[in-house]
Design goal:
The chain is of the alpha/beta class. The protein is built from twelve helices and 15 strands. The protein folds into two domains: about 190 residues, Rossmann fold (3-Layer(aba) Sandwich); about 190 residues, Rossmann fold. The protein has a seven-stranded mixed sheet with strand order 3-2-1-4-5-7-6, sandwiched between helices. Strands 9-8-10-11-15-14 form a six-stranded mixed sheet. A two-stranded parallel sheet has the order 12-13. The longest helix has 10 residues.
């Protein structure tokens, strides 16, 4: 199942003045809580499974009806909310109670309109949703070959694949008032964005465990992460302290640490953050304190302002988590030439600490880290020169299998 917390709800409040959530399927209340915490004024929902409804603590901001989703959407109070306020409608009703100990995912006791009511819900929204954003969860129930990160609908759960054409046509029927957008995260979402609100402004969070990159081994020398493996495998701190839990690899590309996850047994997942996800300097679509570790191999030299970038990389790291960063050492990599002749996208060069540098864009790592002392402690700083071949004709030694030519920094968030 998906979750409304996948989306930047506070952005809808700030940028589009959305005030109310209408949700079909309360469950344990995660979506309603997320909306209210984001600044929504009120959330109205329904729950058909009585044991779940009995746990709801109703208040003026939260009203949950004991009803099936169709009855709820047809109720006068729900219709009044839709007509009077700018709403987000989250259509999430299916398999009543199955996620919480109720009927199974192949329940035959309830009628199909209660088991899989989504198309009937969408049909009820026509003519009622001109001023509402519709987010439709669990697209994989209706679209067999639509690729979603959690995989296709499992055999043990009822599906409606035979209704796929009707499902898509139903969504297309909103074209006069809404634009249609498909998203493959979680179990799949369809979004109907009101044309009257302008260009689609529903932004998604990049969350721990998101599979944003297809990992595949490459022949040759894919990058410095590959070169670092033997060194890091002989240092137990990487496996036991620093690369632990759910991580984000900023700028990982084809040489992400996620590709080598099996060598670091305490890594649970690695989410790669590349251009397709956003600007690495700001990580604007990543929540604060959401990842257990941050990893970045030779990315910081590509951002416009490394100081701003490090602040945001630290922001998304949970307290107690570690950040492992490598940057090229200016004397080992650029070797006295600027602009860099080995990578014309480099915007800075780095040294651990020098009084003077030949580079006009040189950054002393110790100076760079000085502004972070209130938020992080330094676990390690090292020049990775152990396999550098001095005295040779100038060439890019990172294109060999052995010379990292970098500086490694490990920080721990306080």
């Amino acid at each position: 199942m998906g979750a409304l917390s996948r989306f930047n709800l506070a952005g809808l409040v700030a940028d589009h003045q959305v005030t109310h959530l209408v949700e079909t399927g309360y469950g344990e209340g995660g979506s309603c809580r997320a909306a209210l915490e984001a600044g929504f004024r009120q959330a109205v929902s329904c729950e058909i499974f009585q044991p779940l409804h009995a746990k709801v603590v109703q208040n003026p901001q939260l009203q949950v009806m004991l009803a099936d989703s169709i009855s709820f959407l047809q109720a006068p109070g729900t219709r009044a909310v839709l007509r009077s306020h700018r709403c987000l409608v989250f259509l999430d009703a299916h398999y009543p109670g199955a996620d919480h100990g109720g009927q199974s995912y192949r329940d035959t006791v309830r009628p199909v309109q209660e088991r899989l009511p989504l198309m009937a819900e969408i049909a009820l929204m026509r003519g009622e949703a001109a001023n509402a954003l519709l987010v439709i969860d669990d697209v994989r129930i209706y679209r067999r070959d639509f690729k979603v990160t959690l995989g296709s609908n499992p055999d043990w759960a009822e599906n409606a694949w035979d209704k796929e054409a009707d499902f898509v046509a139903l969504l297309d029927s909103f074209a006069a008032t809404h634009s249609l957008h498909w998203h493959g995260e979680d179990t799949g979402y369809a979004v109907l964005w009101p044309l009257a609100w302008g260009p689609c402004g529903l932004r998604k969070w990049v969350l721990p465990g998101d599979e944003t990159n297809v990992h595949g081994l490459q022949l040759g020398v894919p990058g410095t992460t590959c070169m670092s493996l033997n060194r890091r495998l002989h240092d137990a701190r990487f496996s036991n302290r620093w690369l632990v839990g759910h991580g984000i690899d900023i700028g990982g590309g084809p040489d992400s640490i996620g590709l080598y996850k099996g060598l670091f047994p305490r890594i649970q997942s690695v989410t790669v953050y590349e251009w397709a996800q956003g600007d690495a300097q700001y990580l604007a679509n990543v929540r604060d304190a959401s990842f257990d570790f941050v990893y970045s191999g030779h990315c910081l030299e590509h951002v416009l302002d490394p100081r701003i970038a490090l602040g945001h990389w630290l922001r998304v790291l949970r307290p107690g988590g570690c950040m492992v960063i490598t940057v090229p050492d200016e004397d080992l990599y650029e070797q006295g030439v600027w602009p860099s002749s080995f990578n014309d996208d480099h915007k800075h060069t780095f040294t651990i600490f020098k009084r003077r540098s030949w580079s006009p864009v040189s950054i002393n790592v110790l100076d760079l880290l000085r502004g972070l002392e209130a938020d992080a402690s330094i676990e390690k700083i090292e020049q990775l020169n152990h396999s550098f071949l001095p005295g040779y004709v100038r060439f890019d030694q990172t294109r060999t299998a052995f010379a990292e030519c970098g500086i490694e920094i490990v920080l721990k968030k306080l």
